[in-house]
Amino acid sequence: MALRVCGRLLRNGAVLSGRLVGSARQESASCLLAAGNAACSRGARHGFIFTPACFITSEAFLSGLMKGKAAETDSSIHHVPASVPPDSSEQVSLLLKHPDQPPDSKMLKVAIIGAPNAGKSTLSNQLLGRKVFAVSKKVHTTRSRALGVLTETDTQIILLDTPGLTTPSKAKRHQLEKSLLVDPWNTVQEADLVVVMVDVSDRWMCSGLDFEVLKCLAQHQHIPAILVLNKVDLVKAKDILLDITAQLTCGVVNGRKVRVRPVIKPPWAQKKPERTPELSPDEDTAAYEDGAKPNSVLSREKLKELRSQQGWPHFKDVFMLSSVDREDVETLKNYFLVAAKPGSWMYHSEVLTDQSPEEVCTNIIREKLLEYLPQEVPYSMTQSIELWQDGENGELDISVKLYTKKETHMFSLYIHRIISCGYKCPGWCKRQRLWLCSSSSPSDIVRSKCAAARCLQTSIT
Ligand SMILES: Nc1nc2c(ncn2[C@@H]2O[C@H](COP(=O)(O)OP(=O)(O)OP(=O)(O)O)[C@@H](O)[C@H]2O)c(=O)[nH]1
Predict the structure, then answer these.
(1) Other C-beta atoms within 10 Å of 386: how many?
(2) Ligand 1 atom with minimal separation from the 114 CA
(3) 413 C-alpha vs ligand 1 centroid, how far in Å?
(4) At what angle do helices 88-96 and 357-372 cross, to 10 degrees?
(5) Ligand 1 midpoint to CA 6 (Å)
(6) What is the pLDDT of residues 331-350, one digit of tens each?
(7) H or E, element range at 121
């Protein structure tokens, strides 16, 4: 069972747009062309131009508006290099280009780890100042390690965004790829600094570090790590953040005791049961199948010890921020720039990510499927690019086939724009449009009894 997603990227204007196959929408197409040309005249270069990171959520956009930041963000996107050239070979040449580093160059490789949905990709995008990685409110949006490059004056920061840490049993239950088990661990190995992200708006997450995170930290204790308490904008009583810090750091930061004035514990902090020191089957190495076993060197005794731990006492620093706030993230960026050590750059300063244009495209589609399709439906969908070719007017036509495993997930419908919530996320809609379509006629939507289809339709209209 398959559906097709068709998109159009204007090479000259660097705009990813979309079209309905079989029902030409001349009006929309010409609007998009106009937008592309406008972008071009403002100096945009060849390649994808992504939505600025502060447009990732509509909430962020609204808060940006309230702070009067929207105009500033919109104009700034034209000063940064294009994310990815639309052609794979151009991207490969760019990646192979000799780094144009100055004589006193500095480098820092940062691995961002954490439980699913902590906001790792949001933070990476905000640091890069571009929408490079997929973000959604559903867990496991990131499926494999992705690399972003931030180059400022003499310093290059390599950002390694990782899938949310999970256990083999969960991966098996939800049929997740092996990369979700292996990539975070492998990525940390190559890092100079580990950033542990915790969603402080999630009551369960902030009363104790995720056990997988603790294991990963314990195994790479020689690599400095910092704690980032994310989504503080969603926390009303900010003094709770001090309690959370004390909890997640075992009261020790950079070798010093953290003094936290006692506050009345919130009810949820008291309710959470202590972790039992008993190891679950996941700690049993037999639970890892071939190729999915992280190179765990932790003994059973060490694992048991970690089980009774709520936090990690070896963090070098703690940050409290909101990844959707550019100013908050700027502080973290400056920290990275200061922490960078003399060393050669890995990439040319024009490189923004090592992802291929095809990967970027399929990630965007997956992000939108996760955002708009209900429950487990988007997780069972796979994609294959059918068409990636230059159009007559210098645009790039993209057609992607979507496969579903279950018949109930197949939408016998003609789906209109997947991203047409103009008033909801104006950043996206102005620049990027994708269209989903199948061979059925529009009237099929009305006839369709598929709940998923109705849900998608609702979210679109
Ligand atoms: N309000 C608010 N929302 C945030 C913040 N950071 C991230 N989010 C939202 O949290 C959700 C998850 O963000 P992601 O960046 O996809 O999280 P992730 O850790 O990369 O998720 P996985 O791919 O599952 O590992 C998205 O809906 C984001 O918009 C924040 O600081 N404040």
Answers:
(1) 13
(2) 19
(3) 30
(4) 120
(5) 27
(6) 999 999 999 999 999 999 99
(7) helix 120-128
Enter the pTM of the model.
0.71
From the CA of 161, give the closest atom in ligand 1: 20
As a whole number of angstroms, the distance between CA 461 and CA 457 comes to 6
Structure tokens at 433: 């449009």
> Whole-angstrom distance between the N-terminal and C-terminal Cα of the chain?
25
DSSP-derived secondary structure for 202-232: STTGGGS--HHHHHHHHHTTTS-EEEEEE-G
**Cα 120 to ligand 1 centroid, rounded to whole Å:** 7
Query: Left (φ > 0), alpha (ψ -120 to 50) or beta: where does 385 sit?
Result: beta
| Bridge-based pairing state of the strands 252-253 and 256-257 | antiparallel
Q: Tens digits of per-residue pLDDT, 125-157?
A: 999 998 889 898 888 888 788 899 999 999 999
Residues contacting residue 210 through CB under 8 Å, at least 6 positions apart: 114, 115, 165
Distance from C-alpha of 377 to C-alpha of 339, rounded to nearest angstrom: 42
Atom of ligand 1 nearest to the CA of 137: 27
Taking the C-alpha atoms of residue 437 and residue 23, their distance in angstroms, rounded to an integer, is 10
